[in-house]
Every structure is written in structure tokens, then in C-alpha cells.
Amino acid sequence: MSSGKTAKLVLYELLQFAALVVPLFVIMERFARVVGRVRGADHTAYWLVVAASVAYVTSVTLLVWLPLKYVTLRRRRFVSEISRRPIVLAYIVLCTFPCFAIIIVSSKVQVDGDHQFDDFTELPVSLVLFCLVCVDIIQRIRDSLEPDFGITGPVLTHLQHVTTVTDQLHADGGQNGLTPEARNNHSTVSSRAASTTYLYSPSTRPRAPSGPLGFLWRRDSRAEVFVESFLFWLDTVEMVRVAGEPAVFRSAWVFPVYILAFLSTLRAAITPNNPLSSFAGFALQDLPFFVLRVALIAVFSFVTPVFYPLKNVLVSLAFIYFTFLTKLRIFRSQSMF
């Protein structure tokens, strides 16, 4: 391994480890401060919580994180058969889940004490989600740099056009024996394929100018990863923000908000281009988020913008339509897309 790749590997590992331990220490310290104030400035309770956080981070690092890193780097194929993104899944279980649990317990302690000791409750949630986004970005960049992750053996490097039955029928004039309906469907499919080929052909793509403004046309997939990752988590960020509203914060609705928000983070364990990601987004985010947001608006009025439940319902309907309804004959014959 070259020195440049080694430096990148060390940098990625340090960033992921920092994203693991920093939210835990920050949230546990704030929780220790809340517990100490509830117990009347009890320093013993404060240091007990801090010692527990240090013990948890040390145990997780030595018993889970480092062995998983070793297995991931040395035996990638074995790990890839279990999960395509084991590090992200481990981060969600080891960091995101306990952080959300501690935040809920901290909220419950303050509500029971009828006093809000933590004046900036939004900081812990933002820190957890930001570190989760950073881990997701690092993993996406590493996956893009290693497209053959977990794959051994021969690689297909040359593609050759294979004549299909439809091509043979078209070449031999085989449409003469087709019914008018079948002939129309064949013409429709051929026209769609031709238009799609023209739309995405290299000749129809705009060419980058070579003048002084040519740098504006440059694109880098690594920069696009940053944009896609933050957009990927905006819905979850908004859902967790609702839990910071005073009315929701002091009610039992804070529990389903954090539970559904945590379930939505499990989508990060699936590779972005995996076909299962669409179903995971529908089942773990859009559908439950829509139901919860409608309930929150009905109970607490507009604690969340209407834009987000509209987004959830449109994405859910689109998934149901394109996945299930388009297979029916009535939608297959006259499709809008």
C-alpha cells in the first residue's frame, strides 16, 4: 500500500473513531450535569456518570470497534456477506442508539423534576446526527474508491451486444404476424427506447467550455457525496427537531419521535444504490413519519412545517404506484411515465 493510501486510511479511521466517541462523551457529560443538579449539586453522581461513560467507550472500542475494523480490513468478503456497510451499522448501534436513549432519559429527568436544567437541548441531537452524516460520507467515499469491495475472481471488462428475439423479429420483418395491439406496443417500446437512448447519448450532453469559465463545468463525485448525504438526512433532522419543541418535549410524544427517528437511521446500513433502499425509505421513514406528523399536527397544531408530511405522503404514494400498481393491466397499458 502506498504512503498516500495509508495516510488516507489512517485519516478515515481517526475521523470515524472521533465521530464515535465525541457524541458519547458530550451527551454523557451533559446528562451527568443534569443528574447532579437534580440531586442538589451532587458531585458524586456527576462523576459516577462520567466514569460510566469512560468505561462504556473503552469497552466498546476494545471489544467491538477495533475487532470489527480488523475483520473489515482483513476479511472483507466475509463481512460483506453479512452487511455491505458493517461500520455504519455498528456506529448506529453503538453510538446513535445509546445517545438517543440518554437524551430521552435526560428529558424525562428534567420533566419529572419540573425544571429544565439543560438550556440548549438541540446541541446533543445535532451533534449525533452530524457525526452520523460524517460517518456516512466517509463510508460512501471509501465505497466509491473501492468498487470491487468484497468481490474476488474474474471481472467482466468487455460487453458485446447480444441479439434478442425482438431484434431478430424486427430484422426479419416478423411484425407481420403480430396482432395490431402487439404491434402498437412494440412500436411504443421501440420509440421509448430510441428517445431514451437519444436523451442520454453523449452527443446530446452539453460540452464543457474551454474558456476562462471552464472550471464552473467541472464536477467531482466526492463533492456530490457531501450534498447527497446531507439531503439524505434532512427529514430525520426535522423529525428530531420537533422533539425539542416545549410542548412535545414535556409530553409522552417525545418517545415515538426519537424511536422513529432512530429506526430511520437504520437506512444508512444499506448501500445507496441497493434496490432495497427504496423499500427501506418507505417503511422506515416516509410512511411512519407521515403518520406521526399528522398526529403531532392534530395534537399540538403546526409544530412541524406542512412541507414534510406532504413530502412523506408523495414519496409513499410514488413507491406504492411504481412498485405495485404499475404491474396491474389497467396501469400498464396507459402509463403516464
Briefly characterize the structure.
With 337 residues, this protein is mainly α. It has helices at residues 3-38, 43-74, 76-82, 86-112, 122-145, 165-171, 180-199, 221-242, 246-249, 254-265, 276-300, 307-323, 329-333. The protein is 71% helix and 0% strand.
Give the class from helix and strand content and strand pairing: mainly alpha
What gap, in angstroms, lies between the N and C termini?
48 Å
H and E order? HHHHHHHHHHHHH
Strand content: under 5%
Q: How many separate structural domains? A: 3
Radius of gyration, rounded?
26 Å
Biggest sheet details: none
Task: Assign a percent range to the helix content.
Answer: over 70%
Give the integer mean of the pLDDT values: 76
Ranges where pLDDT stays below 50 over 5 or more residues in a row are: 78-82, 147-159, 191-204
Number of helices: 13
Query: Shape, please?
Result: globular
Q: Report the count of strand segments.
A: 0
Can you characterise this structure?
This protein has helices at 3-38, 43-74, 76-82, 86-112, 122-145, 165-171, 180-199, 221-242, 246-249, 254-265, 276-300, 307-323, 329-333. It folds into three domains: 1-145; 161-201; 228-337. With 337 residues, it is mostly helical. The two termini are 48 Å apart. It has 13 helices and no strands.
Structural features:
337 residues, 13 helices, mainly alpha, 71% helix
